[in-house]
Amino acid sequence: MEPTTGIELGTVVDGRYRLRRLIASGGMADVFEAVDTRLDRTVAVKLISPDSDAARTFSLDAFDHEAKTIAALSHPNVVAVFDSGRLGNAPYIVMEHADGGSLRDRLNRGPVPPGEAVTIIRQVLEGLQAAHSKGIVHRDIKPENILLKENAQADRVKIVDFGLARSGDDSGPLMATPAYVAPEVLRGGKVTTAGDVYSVAVVLYEMLCGRTPFAATDFESVMRTSPEQAPSPREFNPDVPAHLAQAVLAAVVAPPPERPADAHAFAREINRATGNVTQVMPTDPLPARAAPSKRQRWKARSRLAALTAIALLAIVAVWWVGFGRYVSAPSLLDQNVDTVANYAAEQGFEVEIGDGQYSESVPSGELLSQSPDVGDRVKQGGTITVTPSLGPERFTVPDLSGKSRQAAAEELDRIGVNTTFDSEYSDTVPEGKVIRTDPSRGEEIRSGSDVTVYLSDGRSPLQVPDLVNMSEDEAEERLESMGLEMGDEEESYSDTIPEGHIISTSPAAGQGVSEDAEIDVVISEGPEPVEVPDVEGKTMDEATRIMRDEGFEVKQVTLVTGGYVFKQSVEAGEERPRGTEIWLWSR
Fold first, then answer.
1. Residue pair 412/453 in contact by the 8 Å Cβ criterion
2. Quick check: is 140 catalytic?
3. What is the pLDDT of residues 2-55, one digit of tens each?
4. What is the Cα–Cα distance from 343 to 340, expressed in whole angstroms?
5. From the candidates 30, 36, 140, 262, which is the catalytic residue?
6. Mode of pairing for the β-strands spanning 450-456 and 418-424
7. Is 421 within 8 Å of 455 (Cβ atoms)?
8. Cβ of 394: how many Cβ atoms within 10 Å?
9. Residue 424 pairs with which residues in a beta bridge?
10. Which of 98, 377, 385, 475 could form a disulfide with 467 if both were Cys (CB 3.0 to 4.6 A apart)?
11. What domains does the chain contain, in order, with CATH numbers?
């Protein structure tokens, strides 16, 4: 599996998230397992490829929409979003990592037993209802978008990929997987929460039977299929309870008005279909024995009541200690340091604000992370610790002038930059000491920036001669006589230096250089050409003023006093250098 984004493993995103394994790769995005080097935790980083064919038909703004959509859903069965930003021109989001793979990985091993399938689908519906309650339709529920965590219970199932999600019943462009899309949506109808219910029913059908209700997978084939033709799940798996098979089939074949309206309604149907528990009674008759006396019956009932009460108390105590006093931690990450305490109090929690951390993507004062994480267990009324952002980390380039190489390296190491050393001659700075840095002292840089330190080679054996106003040939001869060479040549206009003569050099005159050094020069092209204005039809005085404002010398020929210019020696629109002599005639 190769990434579509071209991003290599080992890349550090935003100076924080090191990509270490490609989890999934699709037509327009890659998902990597990564390590958050600041918090030392495993996360998932989703990068979109802006050059992919799919991305050209799907706005990159949808990626930002996905991050905001998931961040707005605080639920243990919806994958949590921790961060977002851009790597070059590739947007990314940082999400909670589910270590058990996707439901598709589980289905590749065969059908799921009915009991386990119902447990999974209940959590899918709980997470989906968190979206439906906010008017959000997922639009692409399928096994690939359902993750399964290992060693988890209430939050084992995580819904991901809200990139196609929309609010309300938006009927935007359809990019979902055909086999799981509701028939009315395939035919151009509105996308509603009932469409998500259809998708969930198809997923449950596939878990029970090892296949979807219809064999077709492409859009055209699926559209030609009638939902009423779907066979009962029991035809493929007789172990599926009849009530459960009926509930699943009804959600698949029913038209939208008769289908459960949202995830909550479908969850009720599933619970109703699976809630009947029948006891299996023994078939062989038990041997007869004497009926107990009234006193014996009273003692037995009293003993049973006492034991039952003790057992109930023990169960309640164990439940309270292990589960009852715990709830799922809400998301506080959309708050800031000024609002988080009041918001948490409204949710029934206290907040502790931890030490801040720097971030290139999260503004100062907003929240980077929380502990416990979103969806993790926390005691009712307990404390949630949040980590605020300090904004981008910046350092000022120190003044290293006159310091040794070792002292400069140690000072730059303290701010975490990549230091390289170079050298140049100096008539004022002793050999081996710092002359200057690039970037210069006082400039602000981020950790990890490149800084070049220039050390002195001492006084130079040669100095650049003054070549200004020399012709190109004269300058070249002068350099060769000193053991120097003419370097790059650049041309520029000049009002003071004649064409073909030297305007300036780099290094400048007087600077020290070594033997055989190359001296770059700027050669004059003469004055910059100016477009000659059109002054015909104007008075001589006005025409003269216009020409002189452009830098031209004016000569006048007046045939009639007070007349108008009828001719100019250089036609309007032509280009001439400033100082050019132009004749004007008036009559």
1. yes
2. yes
3. 666 678 888 888 889 999 988 877 667 788 999 998 888 899 998 877 665 544
4. 5
5. 140
6. parallel
7. yes
8. 13
9. 456
10. 475
11. 12-96 (3.30.200.20), 103-274 (1.10.510.10), 326-388 (3.30.10.20), 394-456 (3.30.10.20), 462-524 (3.30.10.20), 529-586 (3.30.10.20)
Q: Which tokens in the block code for residue 153? A: 């219970």
Please name the amino acid found at residue 394.
R
State the pairing for strand pair 383-388/350-353: parallel
Q: How far is CA 423 from CA 141, 430, 528, in A?
A: 62, 12, 38
CA distance 91 to 579: 56
pLDDT tens, residue by residue, 49-63: 766 554 454 455 665
Q: Give the span between the Cα atoms of 64 and 507, in whole angstroms.
A: 49
Look up residue 388 and give its two tokens: 């605020």
Beta bridge partners of 351: 384
Q: Name the DSSP letter for residue 143.
A: G
Burial of 236 (0-12, 13-18, 19+ CB in 10 A): middle
**Which tokens hold the place of 445?**
């840089």
Closest CA to 7 of 39, 36, 46: 46
- Written as six digits, the tokens of 405 are 């190489």
Cα distance between residue 251 and residue 253, in whole Å: 6
Which pTM was predicted?
0.47
Q: Which helix (H) or strand (E) covers residue 70, if one does?
A: helix 61-71
Q: For residues 342 and 582, what is the distance between their CA atoms, to the nearest angstrom?
A: 80
CA distances from 272 to 118, 241, 275 (A): 12, 12, 5
